[in-house]
Amino acid sequence: MENQYVKQFPEIMSGKTVLYVHGFGSSGQSGTVSRLRVVMPNAKVIAPDLPVHPEEAQALLKQICDTEKPDLIIGTSMGGMYTEQLYGFDRICLNPALCLADTMQAHGMTGTQTFQNPRLDGVQQFYVDKALVKEYRQVSEQRFSGCSREEQKRVYGLFGDRDDVVDTFGMFIEHYPNAAHFHGEHRMDDRSFMHSVMPVIRWIDDRQEGRERPIIYIGIESLVPPVSESSLSALPSLGLEAKPLSSSQKAVRQLIERYQVYFVAPAPTSQPSFYSDVTAWLEEYINVPAWGHTIFTNQRSLLYGDYLISREKEADAMASLIEFGSDTFKTWEDIIEYFSRLGGQ
After folding, report:
1. Nearest CA-CA partner of 65 in 44, 93, 52, 46
2. Which domains does the chain possess?
3. Segment holding 247, helix H or strand E
4. Residue 341: which of 281, 258, 266, 265 has the closest Cα?
5. What are 299-343's pLDDT values in tens digits?
6. Model pTM greater than 0.90?
């Protein structure tokens, strides 16, 4: 694994059970399973080898859910299809293959197939014929059958923006509002997992625990290289074509590990496209951590929280002001060091 990205978080899902549901032609010994166990060492990660026949796989998963009562279910690809249908649990569907039969036919997943990862029974190959494809189609068509308002709160969908195997984002978001793209392909690597999946796992764990983290608001003008004072007062002129400072991206990755982080932008009345431009810019450069954590307001002084990182002095701010660019916080490295000393306080 690319260990420069992987970190351990012993407190996340500590003492809880996580069920991982693997993809087509894979097993419970996949790299994602190893990653889950490394990153969350105090969680119990269950990852069964699924039977090839979908009804048998569903029966096994239901049995595990009945006996283990997992606190979180994570499914990738085919496993994402199964995971969506495991109603009554907190779930994350990663690149879910919601139309699996079509995917199998489009990508040549028929005939003799070799398992991508070793299985506990030692079987290395399996055969996919028309009858098995039909079975998968029937199971796929059960999707969303138990979707309700309560389920919508418990299910997240994450979709790689470079996934050339499955594209079910449009179908998914019609039923579940918690759906976002992450930077990555169909198969998860360490980077996409740590930057995209772990923030969502952290949100779910915080909700389950009733955990309230200190709040940090970050003015988006502080994420980019300095601009003129005239542009600073009118952020639509900021020039969001600019890439963010690499140090600011590093800071965001570190801050979300201990804090509840929100990104703050102005709310112009004369530029309706500004909202979508800011959202697109944050999706490109901050990605999943900004999903559902973006605030548009012209009254930052009304933001109630613990810290506000801003290039501008905020009068009567209801949060401790971290004035980026000042003598004390001249760079993002200064801010990283400051919050490292605070240790999550």
Report:
1. 46
2. 17-209 (3.40.50.1820), 215-342 (3.40.50.1000)
3. helix 246-255
4. 258
5. 888 899 999 999 877 767 789 999 999 999 999 999 999 999 998
6. yes
